[in-house]
Amino acid sequence: MKTIALVIIVLLVVTYTSLLVLRMLENARVNRLRKTLQVAQASKKVFSPEMIEGLPETAQRYVHHAIAPGTPLSRRVEITMTGEIQPKPGGAWMPFTAQQIITPGSGFVWQATARQGVLSMQVTDSYAAGVGKMRVALFGLIPMVSVSNPDVSKSAAGRLAGETVWLPVALLPINGAVWEGIDRTHARVTVSIDGMSTTVTLTIDEVGRVTEVVFPRWNDEKRAFVPFGVIMEKEATFDGYTIPVKIRAGWGFGTDTYREFFRATILQVRFY
Hints:
single chain, 272 residues, alpha+beta, outer membrane lipoprotein receptor (LolB), chain A, 13-stranded antiparallel beta sheet, 3 helices, 13 strands, elongated
């Protein structure tokens, strides 16, 4: 019996040590990604209305509302948020807190801790250098999901395109954004990320506030690009940028299969 108990203890120690090593390796990977996304030197340019001359009126209304004249053209944004997520249809909503860094055109890292009762999960969603990865670890140690493949990368690149509204500078023509007017309250903007172009449709009110964002995003379960929509419920201004700070999002936006699974409120924003 002592021998069996000793073997079990050794196995537990080895398993725990292995899980710790895996977590350390993952943390090192994420830290490397964050460093690649942290632009060393901020742009010396500032926003001026001349930068959007010739754009459709709806697009100009949005940009004028989102960026105040004289605002430095930041290259990245770092966000702290809280909210809730529903991993499975009909399942429980799990509260979370998260930190995110977004460098438009380059990548993002979203790190969250979600809880359900006594259970705690650490979630990391990332994209950089054309590679996306999703990792979910129970109690931050036990890997439940760890996947990185071309489909994950396509979905992550779509997410990066859709989240440009958190750094409106990315939607200026000088940064490669191509606008197309639809009507008084809708416009499309196409952004390119690592050779993949994504067209984002924005709903914009008379003030210039963006109220909805819809874009095609790869869904691995359906093996196709699916309309992904974000509803903007509230906005706030930080350092000359007016951005959404309360959102709801889901797959199949505008269809009978729409499923909202993500709700978030932005607590802190820093532009660099």
